[in-house]
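Hi C.,

You asked whether I'd gotten around to modeling the 121-residue construct. I have! Everything is below, sequence then structure, no commentary in between.
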Amino acid sequence: MRVVYALPLLVPALFGLAACDNSPPPPVNQVIVQPPPTTVVPSAPMPPPPPMSELVPPPPASATPTVWQPGHWRYTGVGGNPWSWQGGQYVTIPSGASVWVPGQWQQQGPGWVWREGHWAA
């Protein structure tokens, strides 16, 4: 029976692998300057349909005061009906605010733009 030792062949291979460092390089600190985000104002080429009538449900049980925010049309620009109704919802009143000013579509030039609703003191 003949015994062959492969250890002399493996030793150089093992040392060769030990010399290979596959770890990623250390991170490089970079400063990336990005411009501030631009505000996109939804616009439509035509006025929205008349508002839908909504049945306002009773307010949810909550420890914080809420108010009903009415629904409104969103312009999708898709196919046969480019408008989608966004249903109303109850929202928590932020501290320091007292009145919800609903969003509205306003004519601007040849088109219409959506002015988002906001809280007023």
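If it helps when you're writing up: Residues 67-121 form one domain.

Thanks,
B.
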